[in-house]
Every structure is written in C-alpha cells, then in structure tokens.
Amino acid sequence: MKLYAPWEKVFEKISTPFEHFIRAQTTTGKLLMFMTILALILANTPLTENYAQLFQTKIDLNIGSWKLSHSIHYWINDGLMTLFFFMIGLEIKREVLVGELSNIKVASLPIMAAIGGMVFPALIYLSLNANDIGSGGWGIPMATDIAFAISVLALLGKRISTALVTFLVALAIVDDLGAILVIAIFYTDQIHLAPLALSSVAFLILVIFNRFGIHAVLPYFVMTTLMWFFVFESGIHATITGVIAAMTIPLKPKQTSSSLSKETKKLMAEYDKYPQCEDYMLHENQKAILINLQDKIDAVSSPAARLEHSLHLPVALIVIPLFALVNAGIAIDFNSIGTVIIEPISMGIILGLVVGKIVGIFGVSWLAVKLKIAKLPSKSSMSQIFGIALLGGIGFTMSIFIADLAFLQNPELIFQAKVGILLASLFAGLSGFLWLKYVAVINRPSH
Predict the structure, then answer these.
(1) Contact assessment for residue 67 and residue 61, using Cβ atoms and an 8 Å cutoff
(2) How far apart are CA 39 and CA 291, in angstroms?
(3) 272 by DSSP, 3-state: which?
(4) Under a CB-based contact definition with an 8 Å cutoff, are residues 176 and 398 in contact?
(5) Same-domain pairing of 244 and 292
(6) 350 neighbors 402 (Cβ within 8 angstroms)
(7) What pLDDT is stored for residue 1 in this prediction?
C-alpha cells in the first residue's frame, strides 16, 4: 500500500491546462484575500510604523560604477510584478492563438463585453473627475481581477458551467490586455530614446530567437532581463517588458506528439531491464534514460506552455500575495471614512467598478445577444451574465497598480483610490456571489 505525504494526492491528480489555470487562479484569490486582510491589520495596529519601514528598506544593485537603489516596495511593484505581466502575456498569446479567443464566433461576446467593461467605467469616472486633480485616474476602474473573480466562481461549484467560467477568463484576459495598453500609452511621463532603442534591439533579438526555432528558455531569460533594464531606463513602466517578452516565446513545440508514445514505451522497456535497487537509488543507465525521456517530453511541449505551467505557482504563491501585502495596507480613520468615500476619486472608482462594469459587461452582452451579433455561452443565462458583470467589478490587483502610476508621489490621492478599490471590490465580490448563488437563473439544456 502506497503512503502519501501531505499534498501528494493533490499533485498526482492529472489536470488539463485549463483546469490547472483555474486552480492556480483560485489559489491566488484565496492568498490575495488573506494578504489583504493581513495588510489592513498591520496598517491599523501599533505595528503600522514597522510595516511601513519594512517595505521602504532600500535594496541596492551595484555593478562597477552603475547602481540601482530602490525600496522593497519598488522592487516588488516594478521587478517581481514583471513576472505577473509575463504570465498575462503568455495567457493572452495562448488564448489568441489556440484558446477561446482564437475562434471569433466564441470570442466575440467576451471581447465585446470586455471592451464595454473598460469604456463605461472610465467614462463614469471621468464624469466625476473631469478637469480635476484626479482626472488621471480614469484607467483605475477599467480592470478586473481574474484571480478574485474566479475564486468566487469556484465557491459556487456546479452552479456555474464550464462555458461560463471560460467566458469570464476570456473577458478578463481581454481586459488585462486593455489595461496593459493603457499603462504603456497613457501612464508614461517621459521617454528617453536611447534606452528605448536598445530595448527595441533586445526585442528584435528575442524575435530572431523565435524565428530560428530556439526552444531553450535561458537565452530568452537573459535577453528579457536586458530588455527590462533598457525599458526601465527609457521611462516606460518596466513591467510591460513581461508582456512584450511573452509574445516572443515559442508556442509551437519542437516535435509533434505522434511518436512520443512509441518512444516512451521503448525507453521504459529499456529502463525496466535493470534490477530494482534500494529506495532513491537508480542505475546510471536508468538516470540517462530518464533524462532522455524528459528531453522528449519537453520536445513535444512548447516553451510557452512549460513556462506558463512552471510560473503559475511562484506567481500565485509569492508575487501576487506580496503585491497585496505591500499595497493593500491603508490606515483607516473610521471617523473620516465617510468623507473619503464621497471624494470624487473614491466615488468615481466605486461607481466605475460597480455601475460601469454592469452597464459595460451586462449591457453590451445583452445588446449583442438581442441583435444576434453573438450568442450566450452554453448552459448559461443572461441572469448569470449579470452576476459575471458584478464580479467584473473586482478590480484590486491591476486597479491598485494603475492607481500607483496615476497618482505617483501623491499619497493622499492614492489613499482615496485604494479606499474606492477595496470597497468596490468587496461589494462586487459579495454581490456577485450572492446573485449567482441565490438569484441567477440557471439555463439547463432541454432533454
């Protein structure tokens, strides 16, 4: 009888890439929730000073006379978050080339819903902040946090069809792409042309790697690191490097999978010829066979697929939770919270993420279905699309990220923005869950 160590059963379960993606996002959502609560506790207890000082601690990188000196907060937001954006880039590329967004008939509804879910929140925000100090924050309510939203759907279990989950994933990925373009185009203050030219050269080299069929990950890693530095020096937000680099990672495997089964059986037959040794001991030839087998498995799996699989865990367990811990800690003065909420920035974000997402996602979807431009996901209803629109108001990660860029060096405005983001996301998550669980009509197929 085989004995399992803790978690072994979980890791031995065979999952499709989409199931793995959903589980990773659900894990991220749970950790995000925990870290957000922890950050709020730290920021509103006697530990608040230690909390602030910890993430303002400087970390220096020195190479000869060249020096980079920034706080832990900065390195997390501009360094580690590049991995998050790289993951988004890989997901966008996969979805566009071989996923749900590759079929225009299937993709048309989430694409239109995502565009509506970006445009209307921005318009609502601007209607309250036009020609005001907070006008630059119009990009904040455009974002949807896929990890939190999928975590809510996971709690609903079988009430939600796979097609509806896929609709949300596709919508959120298009939403992420829109947010990335907004950051790159509208939240860059000053551009230095020389480093930008060098980053373009680095990108060109990455494209050459792809065209020449280089499938080893190391060359892409080295060149992406150089490109990150050049983009950083150019004045454009360096995290965009992650998305751009991801587009150059090969999605096509080196070899087809047709011969893998035959070659695997042959190698395993050779492996079994050697006598079984004590636990953890293998014959040298068996080790060579396993290495050969791993190479053949890698050959039928693209670098993009391998990277997306291997990065899900560190991004889910380290990068995003750290980002939440650093950025979600806001000191709340309950005597003045009512005043903060009605500030144009906070109110613009709240109405944008709640009302704007409903009008944009549900309204556009309803119109597209009525005009027969698109059709609903299978086993779903317009009532459920309304619930998805509510969940679309969970901004959090990307919204906080954009808020820091929009109101750089203005802690008061960042505070107002974060209050709006947290309250809107809390309301959107709870109302979306309750609507989908108790109100939404489930469209079941007829027999």
Answers:
(1) yes
(2) 44
(3) coil
(4) yes
(5) no
(6) no
(7) 39
Closest CA to 417 of 427, 409, 428, 406: 406
Strand, helix or coil for residue 71: strand
How far apart are the C-alpha atoms of 237 and 244, rounded to whole Å? 12
In eight-state DSSP terms, residue 438 is I
Task: Read off the tokens for 64.
Answer: 């000869």
Residue 353 and residue 241 share a domain: yes
Distance CA 170, CA 177 (A): 11
Q: What is the CA radius of gyration of the chain?
A: 24
For 187-257, where are the alpha helices, taking DSSP H only? Answer: 193-211, 217-234, 240-246
Residues 356 and 410 in one domain: yes
Among 312, 9, 368, smallest CA distance to 150 is for: 312
* pLDDT for the residue numbered 390: 96
| Distance in angstroms (rounded) separating the CA atoms of residues 88 and 90 | 5
Report the SS3 class of residue 29.
helix
Q: Are residues 30 and 155 in the same domain?
A: yes
Q: Dihedral sign, CA of 61, 66, 71, 76?
A: negative
Instruction: Report residue 241: phi and psi, to 5°.
Output: -55, -40
Write out the residue range of the structural domain in which residue 368 sits.
15-62+69-187+237-252+302-439
DSSP 275: P
Alpha-carbon span 179 to 287, nearest angstrom: 47
Mean pLDDT, to the nearest integer, of 103-126? 91
Instruction: Check residue 185 and give its pLDDT.
Output: 82
CA distance 118 to 356: 8
Pair 245, 99: CB distance under 8 Å? no
User: pLDDT tier at 10 (50, 70, 90 boundaries)?
Assistant: very low
Hey, how many other C-beta atoms are within 10 angstroms of the C-beta on 377?
A: 24
Vertex 36 angle, CA 30 and 39, to 5°? 140
On whether both 146 and 50 belong to a single domain, the answer is yes
Q: Is residue 398 part of a domain?
A: yes
> Is the separation of the CB atoms in 183 and 403 below 8 Å?
no
Q: Give the Cα separation of 142 and 120 in Å (integer).
A: 8
- 270 shares its domain with 182: no
Distance between alpha carbon 262 and the CA centroid of its chain, in Å?
A: 38
Which residues are 58's β-sheet partners? 71
Q: What is the pTM of this model?
A: 0.76
Judgement on whether residues 126 and 248 belong to the same structural domain of the protein:
yes
